[in-house]
Amino acid sequence: MAKISQIRRCYSCGAVLQSEDPTKEGYVKKETLENASQNFLFCDHCFELERYRNKSNEPEVSEDYLKFVMDAKRKNALLVYVVNLFSFEASFSLQINAIIQGMDILVVGNKFDLLPPTCTEEDTKEYVAHRFRASGIKLTKDDVVLATATTDENAKHILSRIYELRNGRDVYVVGASMSGKTTLVQSFLRVYSNMSKGTISTHLYPKTKLSVMEIPLSRTTSLYDAPGLSINNSILYNLDKATLKQIYLTKAVEAKKVSLEEGQVLCFGGIGYIQLLKGKKTEFKCYFHDHVELKKITGQHVDEKFIQSVLRKRLVPSLPRIHSGHDLDVFEITITESNYRDIGVQGLGWINFKAANQTFRICIPKGVAIYSSRPKVLTK
Ligand SMILES: Nc1nc2c(ncn2[C@@H]2O[C@H](COP(=O)(O)OP(=O)(O)OP(=O)(O)O)[C@@H](O)[C@H]2O)c(=O)[nH]1
Ligand SMILES: [Mg+2]
To answer: Are 160 and 123 in contact, with CB atoms under 8 Å apart?
Structure first.
């Protein structure tokens, strides 16, 4: 009688897995191979590279942008750091944060209109300050102001805070691309057109290719608005124009409830998914654009089922550039505490749940960042 056994391959490099020779490709420890019940299995080499590349991707920083921020530091300028409240958690660059340590910073939490109306201003400011502290910048909620820059509602208040804090110094507006810096600066110009008698100009920032808008504040000082930090680790950067338009949030996000049992997968359209690898049935509140289809996949081989659904364009939106599991980054997160937590995908949205020692696996397009944080929207 013939005994047939399936030969398994490394999910990442595709090498046939073996436990005999650690010097040859596809080596994986015997016990890992024997005990692996999951669909994904990595050889030890890829396991180190992929799974423990647990540090989520940071945005790319250009030399020009570094120069812009270093100049702000050298001039002891006031930094106005604008974040997009819907998704900014993975937008920090350690390199930039190292430079801006110790500078005077006013954080503008912009796009407040995109958060659910239940979010209070005080809680949101505290959340933003906490995210800055988590990324190494010591701020309190008093260093944060909120804005909806598309209306002029808070422009006067923010501008007077800037004048108070700048104390005769230059002002540099920084933050990720699309966070609303230029919209904010334009709202300043509308509410207070006499910022200076000088002429507003757009020119290349010295020794860079950055096109900056310079607004004179006095005879010798200015406010500078440059194109922001790259969002190459955001899902928004990875979408074609039509899909981007489809899922780009323009009104307050609403929570949708979905629950997962162990092993089940929740797809964020054809963009990625989260799987409850280990843990009790968990209820999620999902904060995504209405057009991101939230669909469950159950049973075996969920990864293969996901890829097939994407290829057949059964999930909305479906990303054209996912052809196989190799186009996805895989992360695992175990949450040990027993509080409410968020897990988010940069630019796309987040889920909120009661943590109870669950382990999650998250698959998203290569290069996109994920994050885990305390809840942005508190459960009241
Ligand atoms: N819903 C909402 N949209 C906003 C808000 N502020 C800006 N936007 C939109 O966000 C997009 C980006 O705004 P910009 O002001 O160009 O962003 P930026 O930070 O200057 O971007 P870069 O110059 O690329 O770094 C635009 O479509 C704005 O209309 C806001 O408060 N709420
Ligand atoms: Mg701009």
So the answer is: no
| Backbone phi and psi for residue 306, each to the nearest 5 degrees, phi listed first | -65, -50
> Which CATH fold topology does 63-225 show?
Rossmann fold (3.40.50)
SS3 string of 202-243?
Answer: EEECCCCCCEEEEEECCCCCEEEECCCECCCCCHHHHCCHHH
- pTM of the full structure: 0.87
Å from CA of 38 to ligand 1 middle: 42
pLDDT digits (tens, 9 = 90+) for 319-343: 878 888 889 999 999 988 789 999 9
Considering the chain, tell me which residue range(s) the CATH 3.40.50.300 domain(s) occupy.
63-225
- Assess whether pLDDT exceeds 50 at residue 54: no
Q: In a 3-state reduction of DSSP, which class is residue 103?
A: coil
181 lines ligand 1 (CB under 6 A): yes
Q: Does an H or E element contain 334, and which?
A: strand 328-334
Measure 252 CA to ligand 2 centroid, in angstroms. Answer: 22
Q: What 3-state class would DSSP assign to 309?
A: helix
Pair 341, 335: CB distance under 8 Å = yes
pLDDT (tens digit per residue) in 204-219 = 999 999 999 999 999 9
